[in-house]
Design a protein that fits this description.
50% helix, Uridine Diphospho-n-acetylenolpyruvylglucosamine Reductase, domain 3, 12 strands, Rossmann fold, six-stranded mixed beta sheet, alpha/beta, 12 helices, 347 residues
Length: 347
Amino acid sequence: MPPERPSDGSRRPRLTPAIADARRAVREQLADLPEGALVLVALSGGPDSLALAAATAFEAPRAGLRAGAVVVDHGLQVGSAEVAERAAESARDLGLDPVLVRRVDVGAAGGPEAAARAARYGALEDAARELDAAAVLLGHTLDDQAETVLLGLARGSGTASLAGMAARAGLYRRPLLGVRRAVLAQACADAGLAPWHDPHNEQERFARVRVRRSILPMLETELDAGVTEALARTAEIAREDAEALDQMVDEVAEELVELEEGGCSVPAAWLAANPAALRHRLIRLVARVEFGSALSRAQTLEVARLATDWHGQKAVHLPGIRVERTAGRIVFTAAPDDTAGARVDTP
C-alpha cells in the first residue's frame, strides 16, 4: 500500500509497527530537551539514518522542538556529492530545516574507517556549534552495537569496548540502539522512502563489514538466533558496571591525588590495597587528565607494579610521563615524549 497523502499534498505514511518502533525510540530521546531547542539528524541517506530522520521529523514538532539535518560528504566515492544532495533533498521533503551539506577531507590517521569517522564527527560538531543545536542524533542500531562488542572482544580492548556505544554521550544521542536494522529498513519501505545503500558496506576489506556479513550470521546460525540481542545486552551491562567504577574512581581521585612540582602523586598503599579494576582506572585517569596520555594495559601494569610489586625499582618512563615511587607515593611528572612504550629503570 502506498503512503497515504493528506489533503495538503504532503506525504503522511500509514502507521506500521516498524514506523511506530522508530518513532517511539526517538520520542524517548527527545523528552528531556528544552522547548524550542534544535536537534540535528546526522543523515547519510542510508536506511538507518533515513528512518531516524523521518521519525525525528514527526516527533520533534510534537515535543516542541525544531529539527534539522547535517549530511556529511566524505568525498571517498565517485558521485558522493550527488549522493549527499539526494540525502539533503530527502531531509527537506520530510520537513527538516535547516539542512546542511558539509564536504570533508578525510585523512589517513588510524586507517580509513577511523579517519572518516574523525572527519565526520568534526563536521557534525562544527555544524552543531554554528546552529546552536542542543543534540545531534546518530543512526546507530542494535546491530551496530552488537558488531562493536564483537570487534572489542576480538581486539581484547577491555570494558570500554565491551560497553559499546552509549545512548548518550555529550552532544550525541543514539535513539535507535534498541532497534534492529531490519526494522528500520522496513520503516523506510512502509513510509515510501528510498534509502541509499553505501557500496562500502559490501566491501569485506573492512573489519566491520566482515563481522556484519559473515561472522554474526554464522554465530546466529551455529549458536543461537538471539546472539545479536545478547551482544547488545552485554554492552548495556558492561556500560553500567564501567560507569559505576569510573564514578567511584572520580570521587576517590578528588581525595587522593595531590599536586606535586611538575605533576601529581597518589598513595602507593591505596593502589596496593584496592582491586585491580579501581587501581588501573586511577592510574589511567591521572595519566589522561593531568598529562593527556592514554595508557595501554601494559603501561598501566608497569605503573601498578610500583605499588603492588615493589622491590626498589626506579622510574617507569611513559610517553610524556615519568612515574616513580617516592616516600610511599607514586609520583607522576611531565617528561620528554621520547618513547612509545613503558621502560623501567632497574635499581
